[in-house]
């Protein structure tokens, strides 16, 4: 049988190498499983073959790689590219060549808002993230009867953080919060003490944060050291969801509320087994990014089965008609993958976890939405003073 | 036995050969002049002896040992010191520090104080300017430091490359006198490369004449002064 | 311009042959991805040749040249997005802005020597990047901070500087490169070139000979910045998306300088040779190695840098011109030798 | 006509007065010699005239125009070119390249600059070395190159700082007619030299400087007989060998 | 008000640590006239060494100084001896050998990515007895590890100043930096001096690494932001000047920390560059630099 090539453009070196490698491992595990289970049956048991290329988090490289994957490697479908800044121009290239492009994660809204016919995103977009952070805050205020007046925004000054902050501002205005600090910082900063001093003096009740791994660690540790007391810290995945963050920040990270797409303690069929298998294989646990990458391979399998062809038009048609529920994608936080007009997975939803100490280690416990909250756990809100 | 003897030395820069089969010897306690026109290879000869350029063939032996493969810094320690053309002071260091560097090699360290006093006695101007940066000295002052630095190394054999270059007549005389005194007081053997034939031959015992990378003439200094060829070519008489 | 004609006929012949060959490339290469790689090689050769005016001839080492690529890209694109101004016109606007910026930065820094200048330009480049990342709007012009600018897809259109095929991009950048090389050649053989070289080597001596060194350096800077910015517009139109780190980053600045140094700075062919070596090494190692061991391809890239400098400290231009010389000897002496060969055979 | 007129020039370095109230006058067509012990301030005076250092006070007039404190390139444009005691050739460039840089002072055309260069190189006996890189020259050759390069700018006034240092007497004798020839085509010259043979032969007028101050001035033969000059500069021996 | 005092002190503390990270760079430049682009990577190597030492033995983190500093000294010594020296020899007559810059960049790529291969892209934080320990005065908080770091910087600065000004070896180092050939003629072994200086420069990175590890994270490209900062610092202070580097670091730390109280942290980054260019305008040789060097 023929093999079907899947091109993947992800950052394998440079500043985002860590997530890139997670995504690579997840894809490899999924493809192994799919091939072991007999490949694509409607294509005579065709096997999937992964082709990876390193974007170095650099758009130029991403585009060059996309051109190469499409024209020289002759891949049948593309996935990528994690960094919104790379995904952006790469979807354009895909569009030009009519190549189906699946975006497991890359949150910027506009990626699916440019009227492209070949771009399909599994993950939620950033307006949904910020919306859910404020919804969560509303729910917590109600649940615990706590008032919140002052909010602070602290975010890395890349397109991701700045994009989030724009939405936060709108949302805070709608809900009548007073923004006492609106502080972008360079994510390569070697010292964030100045930001923390400012935060401390700002008398914020709740801090919203968007950070990459390094700065998340610095901020969290410095905030604990300088005894910054707030009612809650609400973060946006990314650095705060990075496996090395919990290890590096340790107890200082306790009580943080982190918004993510997925969490290992979700009560979902098959999740535990898959996560155990992954952890055994690669030495660390699945995370939102890697789950989406994992699911993207099963999505491709499903699409190819239904398309019965590798022709782009057929694949695209099958993608539009996707209604992939249960099975191995059941480990997602929601039930089915379905795309709307723009190519956005309309079911993509988010959960909030709280970080707590468990023995010597830190643990992430799902708390929101309430219907998926871990049984028997009551969130700590507001967090105790330091 | 000679202190320094050179046998059939060939040397140059990269591909370009500038010394051809040079042989000469220097006896202990002598002052020997090396004279010759511009580009004759005098400076190159000194460089080859002190290890700054590596010979292509031939041997240089100093105190009975072949030093043609010994690195330049090691040769200094053995007592062979080269005071190069063009002064080459450490511009951003003081006069004192320059002299200190002269005494860097381990033999000279012990007698640092005594040698320093000698140098200051020889060139009182340097004592005045101890703390001045070398780059701000006038040409003549710099030349004094360069020679002083050579003395500080307490050499067995000192090779001076054009020490009187650019010096006022009154100083020139002093420099030659100083060279002579160094030779006597310190029992230092001296190789002197000079354009000022009259003065250098006056203080030296023997001399070699170089032309186009070869030794063309050698002999007692006084004899050379009267040699018709030397007279015509170097004294312009 | 007489010296252009004073060249030996064989040299002119070779040059024309190579240029003809370059123009014919699209007839043989159909794959857009290969074209893309070729375009990028030429693009980098172009940027490096522009860099060469300052870095090669004025005797200093600028390490912040991506700033001018960025100025070019941002100027033409914001004008295009806000006023619909054709990028072709915006390109020259960008060039002018870059030239003005070049004067601003050149006035204080061109007096500096060696390492100071290099580090000052790094700081300037980084400062500009930080600035752009912090700015949403300048007057009516959308800068959009770290989010970058996106040019909407249109059909192939010369006025919009957008083409579905890679071929037009190839020809545009090729012509740009050839023009810059010609300009370099003319300059090297003129008073400005001589004055720049002299000022770069011994400033005091040059000034004593009546050369206002800082002024000539500034002229070189203006030319260099202007041309570099044109390249920025080209890049923007080729990629249709860019953001501060991609056009204003240090990495781009370093790469430009490395290409020049590996190829041979201060020579006409150096930038081209450097780009011909470094770009493919960069691409190939990434393609073939990045999915086996992360980072291995960059280790190899690093080793290539070290090895080339170890064995060709003056850049590739030296051995290459030796080979060309040898080849030329072979060819030109062919007819004479031919009969002899026949006999010995 | 007075070409250069230095009036009460003073140059101080932190604490040290290197040039102290020096007056100097150069007539058109003259060769003026400056002598003085090492460290007397001769090079510093040149630096002030040529603009490499601004004088602390005093006036320097060239063709009636005040030039004190102006930049070296402007002063060169006015017609004063100097050579450096510590030579500064463009070492990685050829001899011809070096002089062409100088020759561009008066033309923008390559061919003219080259023609001028070849002319001075011939005159200074460097023609055969024109394609050699300057770093491969010997010191005296470099000194001649320094002179050639300065000459290529076609100056009205040439400041020569020890261009003959390191030459043997016979070579000095060869240089003398060259300098006289330069002078004869209308270039005025100020020359600093320790080689008395040259000073005596060339100068129309000699200034003697000691500790930054002018101690004597006048006809060369008068000056060398001045007891103060003998004491400070020449030494008794010089007098003895000359007479 | 108290916020400003706290900022000023924190700025000085962090600034002196920045200065510390730049000292090695300025030292190497001062003698070899080479900008060591691998500087940040060497800091990274030191941080990994300190991290592993502290994590594996669990001892007081400052004991790592006794292991990491000698380790980096020899690392630098042999790096210069085997990798950089041959290139230097080819560029003997050039004052600022630019090819060496490329070589150090090559070393940078190799080291950073080797670390990625060996240790992965993970961020690591060493848990030590001093980590997170604060000095609290009037509601102002200062991290002990930064205070110790500033102290170490001061001591190292004094030591290096003494070493270069007054020790025999230090003078030989300066002599070599001024005229390599003449130094050889004094019996100073030039290549050995270079090895030593490169080793010392790297050892300074080792000191900085040990100071950083108790409160900072470690990962393969951790050196890059410090690198650029160090470039700015050494030029501000005057290339080749040790006190200049430390003072430059403190200025940067102050701008960063105090400036951030008046504007967004991203703008202080910008302010640093503006200030930098301003200093170049008015005093091109930097605060402590020698005129001859620019
Ligand atoms: N670094 C160098 N590279 C190449 N050739 C050189 C170098 N130094 C000197 N030469 C050449 O070697 C030859 C001899 O030069 P050298 O300096 O030894 O002469 P010299 O007798 O000392 O002359 P002078 O009286 O001018 O000092 C000259 O032809 C010179 O051009
Ligand atoms: N930049 C400077 N800083 C401090 N002192 C200086 C500087 N330049 C020169 N001097 C001092 O000024 C005095 C005059 O120096 P100058 O070089 O003018 O002497 P000179 O007459 O040319 O001597 P020579 O004949 O030896 O070349 C010297 O004592 C010197 O040390
Ligand atoms: Mg000589
Ligand atoms: Mg002088």
Automatic annotation (TrEMBL), chain B:
<dbReference type="GO" id="GO:0005524">
    <property type="term" value="F:ATP binding"/>
</dbReference>
<keyword id="KW-0813">Transport</keyword>
<dbReference type="InterPro" id="IPR017871">
    <property type="entry name" value="ABC_transporter-like_CS"/>
</dbReference>
<dbReference type="Pfam" id="PF00005">
    <property type="entry name" value="ABC_tran"/>
</dbReference>
<dbReference type="GO" id="GO:0015658">
    <property type="term" value="F:branched-chain amino acid transmembrane transporter activity"/>
</dbReference>
<dbReference type="GO" id="GO:0016887">
    <property type="term" value="F:ATP hydrolysis activity"/>
</dbReference>
<keyword id="KW-0547">Nucleotide-binding</keyword>
<dbReference type="InterPro" id="IPR027417">
    <property type="entry name" value="P-loop_NTPase"/>
</dbReference>
<dbReference type="GO" id="GO:0015807">
    <property type="term" value="P:L-amino acid transport"/>
</dbReference>
<comment type="similarity">
    <text>Belongs to the ABC transporter superfamily.</text>
</comment>
<feature type="domain" description="ABC transporter">
    <location>
        <begin position="1"/>
        <end position="237"/>
    </location>
</feature>
<keyword id="KW-0029">Amino-acid transport</keyword>
Automatic annotation (TrEMBL), chain C:
<feature type="transmembrane region" description="Helical">
    <location>
        <begin position="293"/>
        <end position="311"/>
    </location>
</feature>
<feature type="transmembrane region" description="Helical">
    <location>
        <begin position="256"/>
        <end position="281"/>
    </location>
</feature>
<feature type="transmembrane region" description="Helical">
    <location>
        <begin position="114"/>
        <end position="132"/>
    </location>
</feature>
<feature type="transmembrane region" description="Helical">
    <location>
        <begin position="218"/>
        <end position="244"/>
    </location>
</feature>
<keyword id="KW-1133">Transmembrane helix</keyword>
<dbReference type="Pfam" id="PF02653">
    <property type="entry name" value="BPD_transp_2"/>
</dbReference>
<dbReference type="GO" id="GO:0005886">
    <property type="term" value="C:plasma membrane"/>
</dbReference>
<feature type="transmembrane region" description="Helical">
    <location>
        <begin position="35"/>
        <end position="54"/>
    </location>
</feature>
<keyword id="KW-0812">Transmembrane</keyword>
<protein>
    <submittedName>
        <fullName>Branched-chain amino acid ABC transporter permease</fullName>
    </submittedName>
</protein>
<feature type="transmembrane region" description="Helical">
    <location>
        <begin position="169"/>
        <end position="188"/>
    </location>
</feature>
<dbReference type="GO" id="GO:0015658">
    <property type="term" value="F:branched-chain amino acid transmembrane transporter activity"/>
</dbReference>
UniProtKB/TrEMBL annotation, chain D:
<dbReference type="GO" id="GO:0005886">
    <property type="term" value="C:plasma membrane"/>
</dbReference>
<keyword id="KW-0813">Transport</keyword>
<dbReference type="GO" id="GO:0016887">
    <property type="term" value="F:ATP hydrolysis activity"/>
</dbReference>
<dbReference type="InterPro" id="IPR003439">
    <property type="entry name" value="ABC_transporter-like_ATP-bd"/>
</dbReference>
<dbReference type="GO" id="GO:1903805">
    <property type="term" value="P:L-valine import across plasma membrane"/>
</dbReference>
<dbReference type="Pfam" id="PF12399">
    <property type="entry name" value="BCA_ABC_TP_C"/>
</dbReference>
<dbReference type="InterPro" id="IPR027417">
    <property type="entry name" value="P-loop_NTPase"/>
</dbReference>
<feature type="domain" description="ABC transporter">
    <location>
        <begin position="4"/>
        <end position="236"/>
    </location>
</feature>
<dbReference type="InterPro" id="IPR032823">
    <property type="entry name" value="BCA_ABC_TP_C"/>
</dbReference>
<keyword id="KW-0547">Nucleotide-binding</keyword>
<dbReference type="GO" id="GO:0015192">
    <property type="term" value="F:L-phenylalanine transmembrane transporter activity"/>
</dbReference>
<dbReference type="GO" id="GO:0005524">
    <property type="term" value="F:ATP binding"/>
</dbReference>
Automatic annotation (TrEMBL), chain E:
<keyword id="KW-0472">Membrane</keyword>
<feature type="transmembrane region" description="Helical">
    <location>
        <begin position="196"/>
        <end position="219"/>
    </location>
</feature>
<dbReference type="GO" id="GO:0005886">
    <property type="term" value="C:plasma membrane"/>
</dbReference>
<keyword id="KW-1003">Cell membrane</keyword>
<dbReference type="GO" id="GO:0022857">
    <property type="term" value="F:transmembrane transporter activity"/>
</dbReference>
<keyword id="KW-1133">Transmembrane helix</keyword>
<dbReference type="InterPro" id="IPR052157">
    <property type="entry name" value="BCAA_transport_permease"/>
</dbReference>
<feature type="transmembrane region" description="Helical">
    <location>
        <begin position="231"/>
        <end position="255"/>
    </location>
</feature>
<dbReference type="InterPro" id="IPR001851">
    <property type="entry name" value="ABC_transp_permease"/>
</dbReference>
<dbReference type="GO" id="GO:0006865">
    <property type="term" value="P:amino acid transport"/>
</dbReference>
<feature type="transmembrane region" description="Helical">
    <location>
        <begin position="37"/>
        <end position="54"/>
    </location>
</feature>
<feature type="transmembrane region" description="Helical">
    <location>
        <begin position="100"/>
        <end position="121"/>
    </location>
</feature>
